[in-house]
Design goal:
- With 273 residues, the chain is an all-alpha fold.
- It is 73% helix and 0% strand.
- The protein is globular and about 70 Å long.
- The relative contact order is 0.14.
Length: 273
Amino acid sequence: MRPRLGTLAINGLLAGLAAMSLFPLLWMLSVSFMPAGAASTLPPPLLPAQPTLDNYRELFQRVGMGRYLFNSFLVASAVTLGSVTLNAMAGYAFAKLEFKGRERIFQWLIAALVIPGQVAMMPLFLELKALGLVNTYGGVIVPALASIFGIYLVRQYARSIPDELIEAARVDGAGELVIFTRVIVPLLRPIIVTLAVFSFLASWNDFMWPLIVLTDESHHTLPVALASLSREHVQDNELMMAGSVVTVLPVLALFLALQRHYIEGLLAGSVKG
């Protein structure tokens, strides 16, 4: 009886913590359907008395949220595709290919992880300005195409791939590109999906760098547009909540769709190699 009571207590505690974590998100969704000013009453209502879509209509018809949503999708998709491709190739190279200075270069990369990203913002901005990439989508995409963390993640996973499998492919006459695309990439699928989720989320939620590089309002991404919206409608809580829902839903849907592969990649990376 006691073990059963302990199990019930633990499950009840976990359920309570889950409810506490989900409550702000659910209330945000509820407020987004309330009429203007309804959420400012005391005590604030939990559910809308008269649900309405006026906040979403205003977002897309007057504020132009559709444009910002497209910008975020474009930037995040390009960053994810490029980052996954380059990081997977680099991680595999550091794990399985022999070349001069491999270990020393990798040590330098790991050492660079301790350098805050803010330190490199000014030199990076000046470099992009010289290349003519300021106020362009490329100015946001190019710096995010390769990450030390992504290379490290793929390298650690790729080290678990047997060398005999690669040698057998070479004996059969396969080139390095064929080996990578047809042999290695299918084996890296769990960690590639995990890396894709990390890259998409990081790019989608990035605020500081797009704010610095994208000076034209028509190029703004959702986080930057939402911050501008909060300054213009500081008292319009319902409109702000609707904008937050539009920002959160795509990444939440992506995570739920790839959850199985994402968890598989994390667990495999923790027990292999």
